[in-house]
Design a protein that fits this description.
By secondary structure, this protein is an alpha+beta fold. It has two domains: 17-171 and 227-316, Bira Bifunctional Protein, Domain 2 (BirA Bifunctional Protein, domain 2, 2-Layer Sandwich), CATH 3.30.930; 327-413, 3-Layer(aba) Sandwich (Rossmann fold). Helix content is 39%, strand content 20%. It contains 17 helices and 16 strands. It has helices at residues 17-33, 47-54, 59-64, 83-92, 95-98, 137-154, 172-186, 192-200, 202-206, 211-216, 229-244, 289-292, 307-312, 334-349, 363-372, 383-388, 409-413, and strands at residues 37-38, 44-46, 67-69, 75-78, 102-111, 123-132, 160-165, 250-251, 265-270, 279-285, 300-306, 327-331, 354-356, 377-381, 390-395, 401-405. It has an eight-stranded mixed β-sheet with strand order 1-5-6-11-10-9-7-8. Strands 13-12-14-15-16 form a five-stranded mixed β-sheet, sandwiched between helices. The protein has a three-stranded antiparallel β-sheet with strand order 2-4-3. It is elongated, with a radius of gyration of 28 Å. The structure holds histidyl-adenosine monophosphate. Histidyl-adenosine monophosphate (HAM) binds next to β6, β10, β11 and α13.
């Protein structure tokens, strides 16, 4: 084979696609319950939209984006996530003027040039939601519940919710200073990757997956213990709502997330069914992001989840089977094949799913094909049927047959 799919991308074939359709329909249904409206944004945007919002120094922007220059010398990037595009569309189309509390959701492909492994792709799919216009902690918890309800309804039964607060522009700088001083003291013991983050992105050092780093930094001060009063109150409210709804959660003071736009709440939902890439859902509040993008200050909160990972975490696998046609029409000779094709066209126009053999195969092969495709009914047309205009409608499951007029197939299938 000369051509193969690009590393880290996947074909979703019939047999798998049914699970995807089911998951997508669950997402839409639950988004409707929570009154979120779908938005579809372009797959590529100006590069600076992402570098501005996600952060120049993040892994995503510094080494994972698919960035290219088009023929007009403009730098464009395949979207690595959905939040930046949704906010760009929100600002550009003045959505906030129509609805002071705008609730949007999206489903679609995202692109990151990561090292491919199980659960980590270069083209993957996310669904996500963003609520813009309110800084109420109720919306932070609504996001967690919305994600939880979609996971559950899709069939993921066990997962863990972790929450943290990453503070705001008032309390984070002082904490960062404290953390950098502490990290410098330990610098030589840390991995090179963590060392390089001390100045650039010190909070991410706490999030290091390296065991040695985790041990060394275990006793360092955490943002959640250095919040200003407003952030502490906000974090307290989020937790008190979670408790009053009896939602199990754990506070993870080291949860930082790989995108720079978060303020206050950050959360993740993980599943032990996933192995090392265990994050199913990531989200949080980003109250300064619209201003960063040149818009009016508008608080916001949201989440996104990976659909490939959700499907990997499904407790009941193998639901999928491509749905078969309602009717398989078999023609035995040339005139019968012409007639069955015309009949198929008429029946399809009436909304009935019909399949045929286009390969001129024997009756035996055609019957085998009808059964492989799980057709509900079969009709065989030959010379006799053409003359008498009477055909026999056979139900594949029971084997029962019924004589009908060739013009009454649609009525008989209703
Ligand atoms: P994120 O944590 O970068 O957040 O991605 C969210 C989810 O997308 C992850 O938890 C994971 O399930 C999935 N995901 C990410 N990268 C990959 C990959 N390479 N392969 C497969 N799945 C992947 C965001 O994207 C933020 N925009 C979330 C957000 C929305 N925050 C506020 N609003």
């Amino acid at each position: 084979m000369k051509f193969r799919s690009i590393k880290g991308t996947k074909d979703i074939l019939p047999g798998e696609v049914e699970t995807w359709q089911q998951v997508e329909s669950t997402i839409r249904q639950i988004m409707r319950v929570y009154n979120y409206h779908e938005i579809r944004t372009p797959i590529f945007e100006t590069t600076s939209l992402f570098s501005r919002s996600i952060g120049e120094l993040t892994d995503i922007v510094s080494k994972e984006m698919y960035t290219f220059t088009d023929r007009s010398d403009e730098s464009l990037t395949l979207r690595p996530e959905g939040t930046a595009s949704v906010l760009r569309a929100y600002l550009q189309n003045n959505l906030g003027e129509l609805a002071p509390n705008t609730k949007l959701y999206y489903i679609g492909p995202m692109f990151r040039q990561e090292r491919p492994q199980a659960g980590r792709l270069r083209q993957f799919h996310q669904f996500g939601a963003e609520a813009l216009g309110s800084s109420s902690p109720q919306l932070d918890t609504e996001m967690m519940l919305l994600a939880r309800d979609i996971l559950r309804s899709a069939g993921v039964e066990s997962f863990d919710l972790k929450v943290n607060s990453v503070g705001c522009q008032n309390c984070r700088p002082a904490y960062k200073k404290l953390l950098v001083a502490e990290l410098k003291r330990l610098q030589e013991k840390l991995t090179l990757e963590s060392q390089s983050r001390i100045e650039k992105n010190p909070l991410r050092v706490l999030d290091s997956k390296n065991e040695g780093d985790a041990r060394i930094t275990a006793h360092l001060p955490l943002m959640k213990d250095h919040l200003c009063k407003e952030c502490a109150d906000h974090f307290g409210s989020v937790q008190s709502i979670l408790r009053s709804l009896s939602i199990p959660y754990a506070i993870d003071g080291r949860l930082v997330r790989g995108l720079d736009y978060y303020t206050r709440t950050a959360f993740e939902i993980t599943s032990s069914a996933l192995g090392s890439q265990d994050a199913l859902v990531g989200g949080g509040r980003y109250d300064l992001l619209t201003e960063e993008l040149g818009g009016k200050a508008t608080p916001g909160v949201g989440f996104a989840a990976g659909i490939e990972r959700l499907i990997m975490a499904l407790d009941k696998k193998g639901i999928a089977r491509p749905a078969g046609p309602k009717l398989f029409l078999i023609g035995l000779d040339e005139p019968s094949r012409s007639l069955t094709f015309l009949r198929a066209c008429e029946l399809r126009e009436k909304g009935i799913s019909v399949e045929l053999d286009y390969l001129g195969r024997s009756i035996k092969a055609q019957l085998r094909e009808a059964s492989r495709q799980q057709a509900d009914y079969v009709i065989v047309v030959g010379e006799r049927e053409l003359q008498t205009k009477s055909v026999s409608l056979k139900e594949m499951k029971t084997g029962s047959e019924k004589k009908i007029h060739i013009d009454e197939i649609a009525a008989a299938l209703r």
